[in-house]
Design goal:
alpha/beta, Rossmann fold, GMP Synthetase, Chain A, domain 3, eight-stranded mixed beta sheet, five-stranded mixed beta sheet, 22 helices
């Protein structure tokens, strides 16, 4: 069948079930056992769910929401919605009820699939915001007997309704799939929402699939390949890797048993392709270093030597065979990276030391760049090129230009390709703000193209800051440099319309706790570890390293170590870990004012939100630390 005829996700599914019926399409680990689902199983589950929804009155053009963790039943339910001509809306499983309520209400979702009682509780708490919901389908029925809401439908009951309709109308499913058009909107994908509630980008079947075909031209994969789905399915790149790509090339999607077992389950599968967020790569590297701190002196010396010579070899465009034989081969195998042919990271910058560490280990890691509205990534680094600065070159179907460049060539990144979004759902004004009349999208990101045509991303255009002395700087650029440290988990750089640059830092608990233990530093909680003077000294050293790499006018003069991690539940970062600067400015105004007032300490008495939605009070005295750059600044002033 021609590509033109296979213009929707469900049409590709039927085609693959016919072509690869008995081949594994996906696996899921449950109770310690990997369950295998063939392409025929995949089709049959989607058929049952779609017909169950149809039997219960779901109509073409409605919105079907999904709330839960990465599992095959999520993907089946999403494809079932598409088969009926509905739009799918993924919601991050760790959202609070209010966030879920906003998305459900705004999209006017008719149906929501919930993983378990916890997710059902969120939906039932929403109240009037969920007035559009006619059906709440729950997969795990543990604890559900006490609920009486008439909209609740169990997973098994839904499947049974689907089987009943299939017996009465045996061709109904194929007819529904055939009625779909490539121009239909398939996915409503949430944007990051760094400044306000997220918008919903409308992604159509055929343009989305066309762009993924261009992706596969530069990073091929096939039915013999394996992918492990770890990043949240509502994120655009997990939609690309777990939903769209397998339909086009047959790569197998594997679902870990839980978030806690994900990296262990990854080792069992031995994936050939990987996509992990920068924070996951950095945490993996930090965990390796933390385990080395617990090892004997000989192992620590071997590790330090291997990293040093391996990194030097990478910088020459080679691999050190002895380091690979003595350490990196075993380390690759232990981490589950032994079979990886292509690994990617995106969403924010990855530290050059971490990047080179994995390259020295033999992991073919590359940076990519894209947006939700542009169907995910559209630039990717070239294989075998050691490039820690750029996000690579555009895909064959993609055009990139820089608008309004300054004297250094830095301006707004503007892009177009045939697979970009149709617009924002129910928000024509926002659509007009980013889409030009000739089909280009203003990304809102600042960057430049280097002499090799590679895209270098600097920051959000609106976040480029200027001190009262007129010095322009990129907070995100400096923040990324700070987070390259194994001891700094998060950083917020300040200084816009202020006399100089300052920073709020969060420790990387897993690494700093190991460091503290190795020095017999006592602590009981994140809060008192972060407040320890020796820990502040440690981070001061990391800040000085970053300052040494910056122009004098952009160096951090003062910093404070925060008493907690930045948390999506507190609205401080998005679900994809992007900083919400307006929230930080408001919530930590007293700390920020104290830094610029020249004080050396600040008292904090505040309320934080825990994972279960409860709130708690925190009191702390935070030390404000000057850097050597501040001393220089004070003398100059």
């Amino acid at each position: 069948m021609s590509e033109a005829a296979l213009d929707t996700f469900p049409k590709l599914l039927l085609h693959n079930a016919e072509r690869w019926g008995d081949r594994p399409a996906m696996r899921e680990k449950e109770f310690g056992i990997w369950n295998v689902y063939t392409w025929r199983d995949y089709r049959d589950r989607v058929r049952e769910i779609a017909l169950g929804l149809a039997a219960l009155g779901v109509r073409r053009g409605e919105v079907v929401a999904l709330l839960g963790r990465n599992r095959p039943n999520w993907v089946w339910s999403e494809l079932a919605a598409h088969a009926l001509g509905c739009m799918s809306l993924g919601i991050y499983e760790d959202v609070l009820a209010a966030e879920a309520g906003y998305l459900i209400g705004y999209a006017e979702a008719a149906v929501i699939f919930c993983e378990d009682e916890e997710q059902v509780d969120k939906v039932l708490q929403i109240g009037p915001a969920a007035a559009s919901l006619r059906m709440i389908v729950y997969h795990d029925d543990r604890g559900m007997r006490k609920y009486t809401d008439p909209r609740l439908v169990s997973w098994n009951a839904l499947l049974e309704r689907g089987r009943q309709l299939d017996r009465v109308e045996p061709h109904r499913f194929e007819q529904e799939v055939a009625a779909g058009r490539g121009s239909d909107v398939a996915v409503l994908c949430t944007t990051s929402g760094t400044t306000s509630n997220p918008k919903l980008a409308m992604l159509q079947h055929e343009p989305f699939l066309r762009h993924i075909r261009a992706y596969l031209e530069v990073d091929p994969r096939g039915p013999e390949d394996e992918y492990v789905s770890i990043l949240p399915l509502p994120w655009i790149m997990e939609q690309v890797y777990t939903v769209a790509m397998p339909l086009l090339c047959g790569i197998r999607a594997n679902f870990p048993e839980s978030t806690e077992t994900a990296m262990r389950d990854l080792r069992e599968i031995g994936p050939t392709h990987l996509l992990l967020a920068p924070r996951v790569w950095e945490q993996t590297a930090a965990d390796v270093r933390a385990r080395i701190l617990d090892a004997g002196p000989l192992t620590r010396r071997l590790f330090d030597w291997a990293v040093r010579v391996g990194t030097a070899a990478v910088e020459r465009g080679a691999r050190d065979r002895l380091a690979d034989f003595l350490l990196f081969g075993a380390l690759r195998d232990r981490l589950g990276f032994a079979r990886v042919k292509s690994a990617a990271t995106g969403g924010s910058a990855l530290g050059p030391d971490t990047f080179k560490f994995f390259l020295a280990m033999g992991v073919p890691l590359r940076q990519l760049y894209g947006q939700t509205e542009l169907a995910g990534a559209y630039t990717l680094q070239v294989h075998d090129e050691v490039d820690t600065d750029s996000s690579g070159v555009p895909f064959p179907d993609t055009e990139v230009r820089i608008d309004d460049p300054d004297e250094n060539g830095v301006g707004e990144i503007v892009t177009r390709h045939p697979g970009m979004f149709k617009g924002y759902f129910k928000n024509e004004e926002a659509t007009r703000e980013v889409l030009t009349a000739d089909g280009w999208m203003r990304t809102g990101d600042a960057g430049y193209l280097d002499d090799k045509g590679r895209l270098v991303v600097i920051d959000r255009v609106k976040d480029i800051a200027r001190t009262t002395a007129g010095v322009r700087f990129s907070p995100q650029f400096i923040e990324n440099k700070l987070k390259f440290s194994p001891y700094i988990g998060e950083a917020v750089v300040l200084g816009n319309r202020r006399p100089y640059v300052t920073a709020i830092l969060c420790i990387r608990y897993s690494m700093v706790s190991k460091w503290a233990e190795s020095r017999r530093i006592g602590f009981t909680t994140y809060q008192n570890l972060a407040a320890n003077r020796e820990v502040v000294d440690l981070l001061a050293g990391e800040v000085e390293k970053v300052n040494a790499s910056l122009p004098e006018s952009q160096r951090i003069r003062r910093f404070v170590v925060l008493y907690k991690e930045l948390d999506p539940d507190d609205g401080e970062v998005t679900r994809t870990r992007k900083v919400r600067r307006s929230v930080i400015d408001q919530r930590y105004a007293a700390i920020i004012d104290a830094m610029y007032a020249g004080r050396d300490r600040v008292h904090v008495d505040t309320v934080v939100t825990f994972e279960d939605g409860r709130t708690g009070r925190i009191e702390a005295d935070l030390e404000i630390r000057d850097t050597s750059a501040h001393t220089t600044f004070a003398r100059a002033a």
